[in-house]
Amino acid sequence: MKNYDEELLLALQTKQDSLSKEAVANLKDNLINLHETFRNIYNIFLNKNVIRAYEYNDEARLSTLTLPSKEVFSDGQRVSELSLRLAELNQLYDYAAHSFKISAEALTLVQLKRLTGLLRYIEWQQFGVSSENYMTDCLSLLTKETRSDGVSEKMLMGLGKKMTMATRGAIEAIRDFTSYQKELYKHTLRTTYFAGLSFDSTLPYAKGEDKFINGLRKVMVGGKLPFYRELVVEACAEIYGDKAEELQNNVLQALQNLPAGDKPEAKAPTKKKEAAAKNPKDSIIAAFFELGRLAFLFDSVIKKLEQNNLGYTKYGLSFGQKFALWLRRFAAGSPAVVYKTAFVDPASGSTHRKEIDFDKFIDKLENRLKFFTSFANSNPQVNKKLNDMADEDLDKLLSKHITESREITTDLLALDNFFKENLAANKKLSVKGIKIEVNNIKQVISRVVEFRHEYISAKELLAAKPAL
Predict the structure, then answer these.
(1) pLDDT per residue over 299-335, tens digit each?
(2) In the 3-class helix/strand/coil scheme, how is the chain assigned residue by residue?
(3) Same domain, 142 and 94
(4) What percent of the chain has pLDDT over 70?
(5) Range of the domain at 329
(6) Rounded-to-integer distance, Cα 209 and Cα 162, Å
(7) Which of 56, 24, 297 has the alpha carbon at shortest distance from 159?
(8) Which helix or strand (DSSP H or E) is residue 357 part of?
(9) Distance of alpha carbon 325 from the chain centroid
(10) One domain for residues 212 and 153
């Protein structure tokens, strides 16, 4: 036992280093993707008024990843229950992505079980179809209620696919942490408790095992190490069982991610990942799919601006202004509405003044929405089209959309300011603010710019690398 546990300890230390280098980053990235994607789903439901906004902030439940209820509710409770549960779930994804401690040491078996429970709360691979998972079915029904415009349902299904992929990635990382923690548990069990007990080898193994485990359970009462019978049975078999040596070899090989019987060798998958990361095109294609995150934001902004415009033309104008607007429309033969806006840039302090043709601006936003929606879903045809394009053409197209999106954010803030100033005193209408959407648009643009910088750096690195 001593030799095996010493060898196991070395393997565990190597595994811990490997987890710290790869699995930690992989799990964090997938949790961040899950939070961002689910937040988009949640906001679409809010914007479509199929659920209500609910302020949820229970630190005790968040820190233990306590899941929302899964109990069946009545039709009368439907909106309130889904509003509460999805608000809870949104906060839990946020907590897991940004506050949950992720490391080989911190992710105990208890923490891993809780995290897995969060990832399985919705079965995303069954999203949009009939599911035995009650909450998955509820979410699918909510999606059907957004069919009125066609765009929202399509976006939700695309986001559901992204949740499926990110969940799979997170589960794969959790499996790595779980295998490490299980073997660490068994190692601690043997080195801490086994030494004070003796295994009665005169009895048949099954009876000797029961006698040993019952004695072990009594010794472990009140200790820091929890009693997991399944792992205790494995720990016994690896030392006292008929196939102890075979089981020990299997454990050591599993920690190295090798099939039983294989010998350690260089990990080819890691090399493939490194090679893939050096391909500049990967970064710029990722930038376009990042742009897809703008789809639901633009959809929300368009709806809010149109509501504000309707309110302004109905309540924000005097009789004389309404009559003058009617004359201009009649003379021009079109329903054009031009707003004289002013916006103070907080970064530079300068004031931007601009006349915005509202209808043309909305048309522009809708065109961008169509473009961004094509990247919001995992579409093999779109991916192939991007791969077939020359790198330089992709970069030129991406730069164009970065510039235009930045200009649009300035106009959006100007219109937001205009409507708030002109409708603030009117009690008949509440202004639909868009600052949250604009800030989220800016964040997406920043991430797109980061991908473009990665692309440029990779191109420069390849250009500087001498030919072999």
Answers:
(1) 889 988 988 888 777 654 555 555 555 555 555 555 5
(2) CHHHHHHHHHHHHHHHHHHHHHHHHHHHHHHHHHHHHHHHHHHHHHHCCCCCCCCCCCHHHHHCCCCCCCCCCCHHHHHHHHHHHHHHHHHHHHHHHHCCCCCCCCCCHHHHHHHHHHHHCCCHHHCCCCCCCHHHHHHHHHHHCCCCCCHHHHHHHHHHHHHHHHHHHHHHHHHHHHHHHHHHHHHHHHHHCHHHCCCCCCCCHHHHHHHHHHHHHHHHCCCCCCCCHHHHHHHHHHHHCCCHHHHHHHHHHHHCCCCCCCCCCCCHHHHHHHHHHCCHHHHHHHHHHHHCCHHHHHHHHHHHHHHHHHHHHHHHCCHHHHHHHHHHHHHHCCCCCEEEEEEECCCCCCEEEEEEEHHHHHHHHHHHHHHHHHHHCCCHHHHHHHHHCCHHHHHHHHHHHHHHHHHHHHHHHHHHHHHHHHHCCCCCCCCCCCHHHHHHHHHHHHHHHHHHHHHHHHHHHHHHCCCC
(3) yes
(4) 83
(5) 280-464
(6) 47
(7) 297
(8) strand 351-357
(9) 46
(10) no
What's the pLDDT tens digit per position in 349-361? Answer: 667 788 898 889 9
d(CA 162, CA 152): 15
Distance of CA 332 to the CA centre of its chain: 48
| Number of separate domains in the chain | 3
- The pTM of this model reads 0.60
For residues 3 and 248, the answer to whether their CB atoms sit within 8 Å is no
What whole-number distance in Å separates Cα of residue 317 and Cα of residue 85?
Answer: 42
| Class of residue 341 by CB neighbours under 10 A (exposed 0-12, middle 13-18, buried 19+) | buried
Helices (H), 312-434: 319-332, 358-376, 380-388, 391-423
Place of tokens 């937040």: 39
- The residue-averaged pLDDT of 124-134 equals 84
Does one domain contain both 320 and 420?
yes
Burial 175-200, CB ≥16 within 10 A → b, else e = ebbbbbbbbbbbbebbeebbeeeeee
* 34 and 160 together in one domain: yes
Q: Looking at the predicted structure, is the pLDDT value of residue 270 above 50? A: no
- For 79, 137, 319, the CA distances from 68, given in Å and listed in that order, are 15, 15, 52
Answer yes or no: do 119 and 219 share one domain. Answer: no
Same domain assignment for residues 313 and 395: yes
Pull the structure tokens for residue 159: 């986001």
Same domain? 12 vs 152: yes
